[in-house]
Specification:
homodimer; globular; DNA-binding; four-stranded antiparallel β-sheet
Chain lengths: ~230, ~230
DNA sequence: CGGCGCGTTGACTGTAGTCAAATAAAGTGG
DNA sequence: CCACTTTATTTGACTACAGTCAACGCGCCG
């Protein structure tokens, strides 16, 4: 990867590298390289040596743990411009998996951390990104702490709609669900069947429309918002 | 507050200030001051101007949102050495409330952020703290995503036991619950009654013992761990 | 002493979980 | 390109757990 590539990068205004000046960006670009992952591929495995970190350029990823019974528990979703990998820690804490075909800009961790100490702007940028992840994580805590499953499902759909929107503050009216029913259930702390039933219910009420298993259109944003309350 | 006070600070080895050298610490101490809050007191109100941030020296705090129906939804707990306040943002996003009598070391945000730009070590230290909060938040996501209420309650007790332990890695065998039933329910996405019933059940099974409404002893750590699985 | 906040318990209802089967979608090999 | 297998999703019937409403107990403070 050359700095040239950064000029065309779809996340160059939002990712951690956006705060760097040209010279710093060149240094970072020198140690980074693009890599593609197919849907379902493991990006980092849990409890491995933490040797790399990355910016997600396109696609989507999930962070998960496998608990003692072998059940996957998803704890976060990562969207483009998000940062992946465990800094300042010998091993990774979560499984990181591509939810859709994805492109990453990967950096060796040692080199990345060295650049952080050399360039405070990079540290600061990572901090801002981490604070954003923390906000997202707390929003998720809020979401899955809702008592009825319908509110959790509705809230998840809204968060997908926001993530799928072209502009950072809008919401897409129509999009593809990035998660399987099983993944949604894992994220929401419920079961496949309940997710399916609540989706059916929302469709019967005229709040959403489904096009195939993954396609989704929001017919009444207000009603969906209401259902998520 | 003077640097002298820092020497006796119970969290001086763990809080964000621990990474600073003497001169930096003196600068930070110059803009910080201690303040005590009583149980239940609001530390920062949601949606206020974000004018201050703080290190929690002793006690405990909760971060919460009040949703449209007026129901409180707790999204995080903060323990001593934790950092409070919203950096890089005009307004606070959450209500911050003292759970027990607490002592804070408060800094005006503008001064604090200026010190961060002057001293990369402080930025780096805040980053490490934020990464720790992010881990904690994801652990909470994992906890409240469990399907049965008993596992959620048991897991919460374990996390209290860890927080109450004198050493960072141990677990206290006996401690006071820092949350009311209502707060536990809010955190776990369930109801007061369910929390109460599951506690009664755990006691009946001989896993825990209750001493009054708040006192708790873990009789069988293994069984509790098992129940939380 | 009486009220108030907090916690526990009981009875009942309803929603979500479980087990099982049918259907739809996606992938495979001819 | 189609038949076939495999996987994902929906639906149904039943059960169990959690939510709701209500009463009661306890400790605290005025």
């Amino acid at each position: 990867m050359r700095p040239q590539a950064c000029a065309d990068c779809p996340v160059r205004d939002h990712a951690v590298c956006s705060a760097l000046d040209e010279r710093e960006l060149a240094e970072l670009a020198a140690i980074g390289q693009h890599r593609d992952f197919r849907r379902g591929e493991t990006i980092f495995a849990a409890d491995d040596d933490s040797i790399a970190c990355a910016t997600l350029i396109s696609g989507a990823a999930k962070l998960s743990k496998i608990d003692s019974d072998g059940v996957e528990r998803i704890v976060a979703l990562i969207h483009p411009a998000g940062f992946l990998g465990q800094l300042f820690s010998a091993t990774t804490r979560h499984e990181v998996t591509a939810l859709t075909d994805s492109r990453l800009c990967i950096f060796p961790r040692a080199g990345f951390e060295r650049l952080m100490s050399d360039h405070p702007a990079l540290t600061r940028s990572i901090l801002e990104r981490t604070l954003a992840e923390l906000d997202a994580s707390r929003a998720l805590t809020d979401l899955i702490g809702r008592r009825d499953a319908k509110a959790r499902v509705a809230g998840l759909l809204l968060s997908f709609a926001r993530a799928a929107a072209p502009s950072p503050c809008g919401t897409a009216q129509q999009f593809e669900l990035p998660l399987t029913r099983e993944e949604m259930a894992s994220l929401l702390g419920t079961t496949i069947e309940t997710v399916s039933r609540r989706l059916t219910e929302l469709e019967r009420e005229g709040v959403i429309e489904r096009h195939g298993a993954r396609g989704l259109a929001i017919v009444s944003p207000a009603a969906l918002q209401q259902a998520a309350a």
